[in-house]
Amino acid sequence: MTRAGPPRLRLLGLGLALLATGCISPVDYGDVRHSELVADPRCDVAPATGNATSSHRYFVVTSRLPDCRGSDILLTRHRGDRMRYGRFADPRETEAETGSDKSPVPLSLSGEQQWWTDLSRIMDNREGRALVYVHGFRDNFRISSEDTAQIARLTGFTGPVIQYSWPTQGELLKYVVDETNMYWDERNFRRFLMKLAEQPWTREIVLISHSLGARLVIPAVEYVDRNSASRDSSNISNIILASPDIDRQFFEREIAAETLAGRRIKTGRRITVYTSAEDRALDLSYRIHGYPRLGSPDCFDPFRAAALEEKGLPARCYAVLPGADMMPAKSGLTVIDTSAVSKGANGHSDFLRSATACLDFAAVVNGERERRAGREATHLPHVFTLPALPKGEEPDHPLICRRTLLQ
């Protein structure tokens, strides 16, 4: 189905025009040798070195190249020479203390062994639950850290919260570079996820991705399922894909055989997808790639769209597992359509911007994966919509979604 509004066409036209005039360029190496950025011992911590960052609440695993030349450690847009492990603090807390939103994210790197030791100690005290967040396209480390901390506050998650930070460029016109780096990073992420899943103290992993991050998460889960020593990675049980920028047909094909296999559903695995017809970012991705994205309910088949309209239904199409009973308890898949409550400039982050979507997302993180008050059923058993708010009723979206620093 074709659904291009003028703003989307202008954005696409701008990108094509800039490409034609040479304004979209390769990634700059930078003015400093990368070896100089990591020469300081703070960037090259030995695996067994102790960790002095326990005061920082959040954990980070990153394939970004750090810059340790100044007093603050920064994570750059470049590919790292190896994986690094550390802890970071909520950027909003720093902003509240300093009165500046330009302060670097408080970050310290530690040895890998010590990082895992610290993680295991906290997980033992939190019933073996961990939350892993994989950000999407364009997010620099500050933005993804703010989102990670917001997810922790919004959901009230009591276990360790881990951000996986991969080298995005932080620029709208560097989408293809981000996509390239995402594929480059697949091996790093799947190795990390496997190690986390195989720890004896890991009982449950809540795995959340946003946008392009879904293309790291889905293959990694499939890899862990296929290669874990016990052939049982059922502790990766709660997978949430927010505005996923992944080919819908690829998703249907890849998850059907293994990721949502019957034996995994029986042990509690569920996938929840948040999608919106108002997602302009995914509308542009659809045009770039030629096929609908999982996070946007576009109908590729115009005859299917017409048939839905003839029945008086919205012309929206969603992921369906071929040959499966699509009741969520049977298929393991739930799709939440946030079109009616989309917020923000491009409708691409409803799970962190729209009060209705935020509350639904928080409930899913905390275990309400199939039934949730406030959802409306559709003609498809696995698809639910979040209804529009009554006219004149407008909640305080930032307050509800971001919560306060004290919560």
Please tag this protein with its features.
11-stranded mixed sheet
What is the string of helix and strand elements?
HHEEHEHEHEHHEHEHHEHHHEHHEEH
Q: Please give the largest β-sheet.
A: 11 strands, mixed
Count of DSSP E strands? Answer: 11
Distance between the termini: 44 Å
Question: In terms of structural class, how would the helical and strand content be classed?
Answer: alpha/beta
Q: What fraction of the residues are assigned to beta strands by DSSP?
A: 15-25%
Low-pLDDT stretches are 1-5
Q: How many discrete structural domains?
A: 1
The helix content is 25-40%
- Give the averaged pLDDT, no decimals: 89
Principal-axis shape: globular
Number of helices: 16
Report strand order across the widest sheet: 3-2-1-5-4-6-7-8-9-11-10
Q: Kindly provide the radius of gyration, computed on alpha-carbon positions and rounded to a whole number of angstroms.
A: 21 Å
Region (Disordered): 86-108
Biased composition (Basic and acidic residues): 86-95
Organism: Parasphingorhabdus marina DSM 22363
InterPro entries: AB_hydrolase_fold, DUF900_hydrolase
Can you lay out the helices and strands and say which pair or pack?
Layout: H1 6-20, H2 34-37, E1 58-67, E2 74-88, H3 91-98, E3 107-110, H4 112-125, E4 129-134, H5 141-155, E5 161-165, H6 175-184, H7 186-198, E6 204-210, H8 214-227, E7 236-242, H9 248-259, H10 262-266, E8 270-275, H11 280-289, H12 302-310, H13 328-331, E9 333-337, H14 350-353, H15 355-365, E10 376-377, E11 383-385, H16 397-402
Helix pairs in contact: 7-8, 8-9
